TrEMBL record:
Organism annotation: Agelaius phoeniceus
Gene, per the UniProt record: Utp11
Entry's localization field: Nucleus, Nucleolus
Protein name (Swiss-Prot/TrEMBL): Probable U3 small nucleolar RNA-associated protein 11
Biased composition (Basic residues): 7-17
GO BP annotation list: rRNA processing
Entry keyword rRNA processing: yes
Superkingdom per UniProt: Eukaryota
Record-linked InterPro entries: SSU_processome_Utp11
Pfam families according to UniProt: Utp11 (PF03998)
Gene Ontology CC terms: small-subunit processome
Chain segments carrying region Disordered: 1-25
Taxonomic classification: Eukaryota, Metazoa, Chordata, Craniata, Vertebrata
Nucleus in keyword set: yes
Keyword set, alphabetical order: Nucleus, rRNA processing
Amino acid sequence: MSAAFRKAAKARQRPHRERAQPAARTKLGLLEKKKDYRLRAHDYHKKQNALRALQKKALDKNPDEFYFKMIRAEVKDGVHVIKQPKDEITPEQMKLMRTQDIKYVEMKRVAEAKKIERLKAELHLLDAAGSAAGRHLFFVDTEREVREFDIAAHLDTVPELVDRVYNRPTIATLQREAVKGPTDPAHLKKLAQQRKNQYDLLRQRIEREKAMFVISQKIQTRKDLLDKTHKVKVKKETTTGPAIYKFKFQRKR
């Protein structure tokens, strides 16, 4: 082929132009250009080589070969998953664990009980502000005494101290000794709030101690259920108490 012929053929060739991206396919991303064929070819050959290597490995595999992952693995939704072995616990081990749990809960419950007793000793069981008022009954003989009854005179104190159920001195004590302690209303209000907070804390600790007692009972019930003795449920488990079972009597040797 002469140089003139090649030159004429090259002149007749149409220049290559990239295709325009159709408007309906813009949501699918940019159109691949001609130069990207090398990347696609490289990826294709890489996958083919990997498949050939797996086929060769499968052909060379010993049919009698065994390893533990054969029984510890499975495919779920196309994903290779290794099964986790389940913990095997004997009944004796379970009983021991329940015993340890009971000991820990009981230790925490005893600690709460000691804190409750300490708080009660500090508060002297005084009525907190906002708590339910107690009732104090006085007995008289006639209706006239009822109409003329004077609580302050009967208690031998001043009318300002009638509403107090604690630290209520008599008139003789007030005449003999000076009033001790704070008398400012703002300070008294602050002390009342502190006392109320202490009683709220005491109530919370009492509720926590009751909850721990219920947990301890439920753990003990679950521990007893590990026994193979025939049993019948008498009462269902509730938030305030464990389930109740009736066990068949067995004579001890």
